[in-house]
Amino acid sequence: MNNGKKIHNFSAGPSILSDYALEKSAQDIDNFAGMGLSVLEISHRSKQFVDVVDQAQHLVRQLMGLNEDYDVLFLQGGASTQFFQVPQNFLQQKAVYLNTGVWSQKAIEEAKGFGRVVVAASSEDSNFNFIPTSYTIDGDADYFHCTSNNTIFGTQMKSFPNSPVPMICDMSSDIFSKEVDFNAFDLIYAGAQKNMGPAGVTLVVIRKDMYARVADRHIPTMLGYKVHGENGSMYNTPPVFPILVSKYNLEWVMNNGGCAGMQIRNNEKAELLYAALDRSPYFVGTAETDSRSNMNACFVFKSEFEHLTESFDAACKEGNISGLKGHRSVGGYRASMYNALPLESVQALVHIIDNFAS
Ligand SMILES: *Cc1c(COP(=O)(O)O)cnc(C)c1O
Questions:
Q1: Which residues lie with the beta carbon below 6 Å from any ligand 1 atom?
Q2: Of 18, 98, 164, 219, whose CB is crowded by the most CB atoms within 10 A?
């Protein structure tokens, strides 16, 4: 899809999609479901498009192993809208948050507008380079909120607490990347543009019994989860094209072994890259070893080698490596290795790291 030139796409998001999803979607822009019309110019209530939503929901259920207690919603506004939609719906008195990065902080700030926020643990003092593991969750809280993968700092939760209250998780950057007991959560949300599809749709998976816990306040219709659940995620015009592309990308995940298959693939890529960083005399990973993310690997030059930045950047450019620049709050480099990134792209980057010499 890259005009014959192989670009290794390490973009943090929006990020690489499977060729399968891009090709199928391109066909549907031209002629969707044999209708002789583009998918972009038909009713979202046509049978052909309703089938797409049904299939996408079915794929999410299958890939996550969800039972019938959950609704699968395709909403708009990005994960950032979930930062306030969650507390608006469920924060009556007090909520507990785990603070593991910029996205957690933003969720915490939004929640404060609706009630009391207790931060169970935070790694802010060390610039979020690890995931706190020992903390308690108050049993009288309305819910517990965590962020499974910290896209900016390259840390990832390896396990989840046994929460005494409903557990809510922002899985924007590692959803469908590995096997997880998704049924342990009461609400999961993810902006699609990292590991699920293109920008423009947000996946929300919600346990239906959460509807009985909605806080006692006015909630605008569009922000009520129940409204979307009861209407099969078709209360109003949904983001048709992002849902379509996501459906194809999830089909690709399914055809490649589902979450278990992605886990094998992603482990292999991450092990290869972290091993190269660990043996490199020039670089150091910024995350603590046991908190390292399989999705986003953050690394910087050791201070005595910072003057080599330009020549490393040139070597990456020469090797068709794209999207490696680190987030401004960490600096250095960030290699995002989402599901669709092939092993050969990591091999190409490792080759450059291994052969880089001052
Ligand atoms: C990118 C990201 C967000 C923000 O998502 P938007 O869809 O841009 O609002 C939130 N949380 C995490 C973990 C992210 O990686």
A1: 13, 78-80, 103, 147, 151, 170, 172-173, 191, 194
A2: 98
Whether the model clears a pTM of 0.85, i.e. scores above it, the answer is: yes
User: Cα–Cα–Cα angle for 176, 63, 155, nearest 5°?
Assistant: 20
H or E element, residue 70: strand 70-75
CATH of the domain at 325: 3.90.1150.10
The best mutation among 83, 173, 298 to test binding of ligand 1, ranked by most ligand atoms within 8 Å of the C-beta, falls on 173
Mark whether 161 and 46 lie in a shared domain: yes
The tokens 């480099």 sit on which residue? Answer: 333
Q: Which amino acid is at 259?
A: C
Report the residue among 11, 85, 103, 296 best suited for mutation to probe ligand 1: largest number of ligand atoms under 8 A from its CB.
103
| pLDDT confidence tier of residue 357, bands split at 50, 70 and 90 | confident
As for how many domains the chain has, the answer is 2
